[in-house]
Design goal:
Length: about 550
């Protein structure tokens, strides 16, 4: 730290360093940085030691903070087994490679091992700053990573597996975790419970639904960021808890016991960044789901998330695809954000009593993704706090009697209800009424004029808003918005605003659709302008004037 023109150094106190066992494959070290504050320059050096097939041996030169000096110093045995991959800016301040001969110091034998010593240094790396709707900054950071081939050979057992193919990787995965087959007798301990759980059910879909619901609702996920299991399946079954891999591998085994074809499938989530789906790169992935085959169709299951509906995954899984793990035949399951669409419909009815006082009701039929988002927010906070944030205070409208239908049932989309009261409407000579009582976008989600990264929406959008407004007694319509139709890049999106005045009512229908999820930086300006036009249109007012008032 620079204090009074002098540099003062504060060193790490080893007392503050402690170990955390993340799972049976991973131990992490955590520590407290002394005297760290804005403006500090800090230096960290550490070593990773591992024999795991899924050890990350890559390096990000860019983070959320500017970096004066970022260095990756790596010594590898058997360097021919690795392929070096670069991402981003490939110019380095220092970039050296040298071969090193390592001679064993054991007295019983002398072995000379060829090793490679790599050194990469970048200086003055700028911070990598996020933007709205960026899936993962890992996709854009300057990085060097190493891809390796792993294998196990046991001639006497007839085992010869290599991770050069997905089938080989699957065999390695099952071998290292003691799961050579899901349908064998080693899982007999769950047979009685499964018979009770599926008693009376006739179809495979009904059995899969009940088994999935039971696992989802009775097991607790402790870690969602690793694709290797942390314990044996029986231990997961008894403890009713485990990591995402533990829970979904157990689900796969349970489905096999009732003769439903199912495989685990490995993927990289949106937050983790893109993973290679062509061939296995063991460090690319961080998640595992279950893919069951019922009536010739893929059923996507993730029982680790308590808010996941049956047969649906969270949007974070839709990052290109997943690959099923099968010793004989692996296949790619496409998981594209464009395949998801969230349909929301808002119904608003505003009535007028004999005195001209306005009141009404609002009902929102939420889509699957909006329902999940609301349930997640309520789980973190409370229903009361959710309603406080969901219904913003407005000058004319107050909300009351808020209700949520099916909050506790993640398999059914939510319905939101509330009553509305239009304050002081009867006393005003002129009423300025915004007919869009509640908008999906209160402000533009893309405020910046320029964009550096691709826009990645989690799903397509289809939002419908329907309003029926009684013209209050004693008032006439002096002004109202005009109907409008806005297109985004042809058929990539649309905003339709249709308003009509009848004898005693005004009816409004709005539909906003986004037909794709990815927009390039060249398409960004049009996307931003699209939302500017939407927000401008949704803020136009109906003007009501008392019949006996002068203009």
């Amino acid at each position: 730290n620079l204090e009074n023109g002098e540099i003062h150094r504060n060193y790490l106190d080893l007392v503050t360093v402690y170990s955390v066992k993340e799972n049976r494959n991973l131990m992490s070290k955590k520590f407290v940085m002394p005297a760290l504050k804005e403006g500090s320059v800090f230096d960290i050096e550490y070593t990773i030691r591992s024999a795991s097939i899924a050890t990350k041996i890559d390096w990000n030169f860019q983070t959320a903070y500017p970096c004066l000096w970022s260095e990756y110093d790596l010594t590898l045995a058997n360097p021919h087994r690795y392929t070096i991959k670069y991402q981003g800016d490939t110019s380095f301040y220092i970039h050296t490679t040298e071969l090193v001969d390592h001679v064993s110091q054991e007295r019983s034998y002398h072995e000379k091992l060829a090793m490679a010593h790599y050194r990469w240094v970048k200086i003055n790396e700028p911070a990598i700053v996020s933007e709205p709707y960026v899936g993962s900054l890992n996709n854009y950071a300057d990085r060097v990573s190493l891809q390796s081939e792993w294998y196990v050979i046991i001639p006497r057992a007839g085992i010869d597996f290599s991770s050069s193919t997905w089938e080989g990787f699957s065999n390695l995965f099952f071998y290292y975790n003691g799961m050579e087959g899901f349908g064998n007798e080693k899982y007999h301990w769950m047979k009685k419970d499964l018979e009770d759980l599926t008693a009376g059910l006739k179809t495979k879909n009904d059995m899969a639904k009940d088994i999935y619901g039971w696992v989802r609702d009775h097991f607790t996920c402790l870690n969602t960021q690793y694709y290797l299991p942390s314990q044996d399946l029986k231990e997961t079954y008894v403890k009713k808890s485990g990591d995402v891999a533990d829970i979904n591998l157990l689900l796969t085994a349970m489905l096999h016991q009732v003769h439903i074809d199912a495989d685990p499938a490995i993927l990289s989530t949106v937050a983790n960044g893109y993973g290679n789906l062509t061939y296995p790169v063991v460090t690319d992935y961080n998640y595992i789901i279950c893919v069951a085959q019922i009536d010739g169709k893929d059923l996507l299951l993730d029982a680790s998330q308590p808010l996941n509906p049956y047969g649906k995954l969270q949007p974070d899984c839709y990052n290109g695809g997943a690959v099923t793990l099968n010793a004989n035949h692996c296949r790619l399951v496409r998981l594209l954000p464009d395949s998801l669409c969230d349909l929301n419909r808002t119904d608003v009815i505003v009535t007028s009593d004999e005195k001209g006082i306005l009141n009404g009701s609002l009902t929102i039929h939420c889509g699957n993704e909006s329902s999940r988002s609301i349930r997640e927010e309520i789980k973190k906070t409370s229903t009361k706090e959710f309603f406080t944030n969901f219904f913003p205070s407005r000058q004319m409208v107050s909300f009351s009697n808020e209700e949520l239908d099916e909050l506790g049932n993640p398999d059914i989309p939510l319905t939101v209800h509330c009553d509305m009261d239009f304050k002081d409407s009867v006393n005003a000579d002129i009423i300025y009424l915004n007919p869009v009582i509640l908008s999906q976008f209160e402000k533009n989600p893309f405020p910046s004029e320029k964009r550096k990264y691709i826009v990645e929406m989690p799903y397509r959008m289809d939002n419908i808003y329907l309003l029926t407004l009684d013209i209050p007694n004693g008032y006439r319509v002096e002004e109202m918005p005009s109907s409008s139709l806005i297109h985004l890049n042809g058929n990539e999106g649309s905003f339709e605003y249709i308003i009509e005045k009848n004898v005693n009512t005004i009816q409004l229908q709005i539909r906003m659709k986004l037909n794709k999820t990815f927009f390039t930086t060249e398409e960004y300006v049009a996307l931003r302008d699209f939302f500017i036009d939407i927000i401008k249109k949704e803020n136009e007012h109906i003007v009501l004037r008392k019949l006996n008032s002068s203009r």
